[in-house]
From TrEMBL:
GO function terms (MF aspect): ATP binding
Pfam families to which the protein is assigned, alphabetical: ABC_tran
Domain ABC transporter: 4-229
Gene3D superfamilies (alphabetical): P-loop containing nucleotide triphosphate hydrolases
Keyword field: ATP-binding, Nucleotide-binding, Transport
Designated name of the protein: ABC transporter ATP-binding protein
Record InterPro entries: AAA+_ATPase (IPR003593), ABC_transporter-like_ATP-bd (IPR003439), ABC_transpr_LolD-like (IPR015854), MacB-like_ATP-bd (IPR017911), P-loop_NTPase (IPR027417)
Highest taxon above the source species: Bacteria
Length: 230
C-alpha cells in the first residue's frame, strides 16, 4: 500500500526553485533513500513530505488524502500522531533529562505521566542507553544524544519516520550502529522511512533510492547505494 505520494512538488525560497516537479511514492514498510549533492533539495523535499513546508505547486497525499492543502490543525495532528522526525543534530530540549525528552511526545499526545515515563524507559533500553535516563543532553556525547533523539522520534510508533542526515554529525561506526538499530526497529514495526543522505553507506540501508539534482529527479539516477533494490 502506498502511504505517501508526491506529484509535481515544486518549492522556491527565492527566484530559483529548490524543487521542481518531483514525483515519488513511499510504500508501507519501505525505506526510501533521497540522495544527491548538497543543496539539491533533499531537505526541502523531506519538509514538504512531512507537512512542515507547504509546496508552491504539486500535491502531497498521505494515505490517499491531500496533505499539502490540509489545515494547519490537521497537519499538526499528523506530525504528532503519524510522523516521527530525526534530524542531523538531535535538537533535544536542553533542560530536560533523556527520559523526559523521550516522554514528551507521549505527554503531548495525551498519555499520562507514569505511562509516558515507563514507555520512555523502555525506549532507552532498546537503544542501549538506559543509564542516561536522568542525564541532560549537555552531559551526553553526540552519539548518545542522537540515540535519545531517535528514541524520541520512535516513541509514538509513527507510521513514517523522516530522517534528515541522521548520522551526519557522528563518527562512522557510531553512525552505523545507530542507523542499524533504527532500521531494525522500523522493519519490526513495518514503519516507512524517508532517509535523506549524501552518504552511500547510509543509502545502502534503503530498499529504494531516488536521486535529486538541482531540485529535479534524476531519472536514470543509478544512485549511490549499489545495494538498493528498485
Ligand atoms: P539539501 O538538503 O539537498 O542540501 P536543501 O533542500 O537544504 O538541499 O536546499 C535546496 C536549495 O534551497 C539550496 O540552494 C538552499 O540554499 C536553498 N534553501 C534551503 N532552505 C532555504 C531557506 N530557508 N531559505 C532560502 N533558501 C533555502
Ligand atoms: P540541510 O542541508 O540539512 O538542509 P542546511 O545547513 O543546508 O542543512 O540547512 C539548515 C537550515 O537552514 C534549514 O532549516 C534550511 O531550510 C535553512 N537554509 C538552508 N539554506 C539556506 C539559505 N540559502 N538561506 C536561508 N536558509 C537556508
Amino acid at each position: 500500500m502506498t502511504l505517501l505520494q508526491a506529484r509535481g512538488v515544486t518549492k522556491s525560497y527565492g527566484p530559483t526553485p529548490a524543487l521542481r516537479g518531483v514525483d515519488l511514492e513511499l510504500g508501507e514498510g519501505r525505506i526510501l533513500a533521497v540522495t544527491g549533492p548538497s543543496g539539491c533539495g533533499k531537505s526541502t523535499l523531506l519538509h514538504c513530505l512531512a507537512g512542515i513546508l507547504r509546496p508552491d505547486a504539486g500535491e502531497v497525499h498521505y494515505r490517499g488524502r491531500r496533505l499539502d492543502t490540509a489545515s494547519e490543525t490537521e497537519r499538526s495532528r499528523l506530525r504528532r500522531d503519524e510522523f516521527g522526525v530525526l534530524f542531523q543534530f538531535g535538537l533535544l530540549v536542553a533542560e530536560l533529562t533523556a527520559a523526559e525528552n523521550i516522554a514528551l511526545p507521549l505527554l503531548l499526545a495525551g498519555h499520562g505521566r507514569r505511562e509516558s515515563r515507563s514507555v520512555a524507559l523502555d525506549w532507552l533500553d532498546r537503544f542501549g542507553v538506559r543509564e542516561l535516563a536522568e542525564t541532560v543532553p549537555g552531559q551526553m556525547s553526540g552519539g548518545q544524544q542522537q540515540r535519545v533523539a531517535a528514541a524520541r522520534a520512535l516513541v509514538t510508533e509513527p507510521s513514517v519516520l523522516f530522517a534528515d542526515e541522521p548520522t551526519g554529525a557522528l563518527d562512522r561506526l557510531v553512525g552505523e550502529q545507530l542507523l542499524g538499530l533504527v532500521v531494525e526497529l522500523a522493519r519490526e514495526r513495518r514503519m516507512s522511512v524517508v532517509l535523506v543522505t549524501h552518504d552511500a553507506t547510509v543509502a545502502g540501508y534503503a530498499d529504494d533510492e531516488i536521486v535529486l539534482r538541482d531540485g529535479v529527479l534524476d531519472p536514470g539516477g543509478l544512485g549511490i547505494a549499489a545495494g538498493a533494490i528498485g
